[in-house]
Amino acid sequence: MYRCMLYADAASLSNTPVKWPFNLLVLDPVGGSGYCTQILAHNGGSGLVGLYIRAEYGGTWSEWKQL
After folding, report:
1. What does the pLDDT read at residue 63?
2. Range of the domain at 48
3. Which run of H or of E encompasses 67?
4. Which of 4, 14, 51, 67 has the fewest Cβ atoms within 10 angstroms?
């Protein structure tokens, strides 16, 4: 199962950001398992300032990358 989740966090690139009231679930086209991608929308107090993404495989998270 491949999951893509959208997050909003008004403070920082936290490991526990506040979820928006929706997320996007996408099936992995190659049938992999244990792989999750998170997309974080970072709000600096004056609107959307950036989208960030990170991936997890086998329990290990990558660093946040700006899209």
Report:
1. 73
2. 2-66
3. none
4. 67
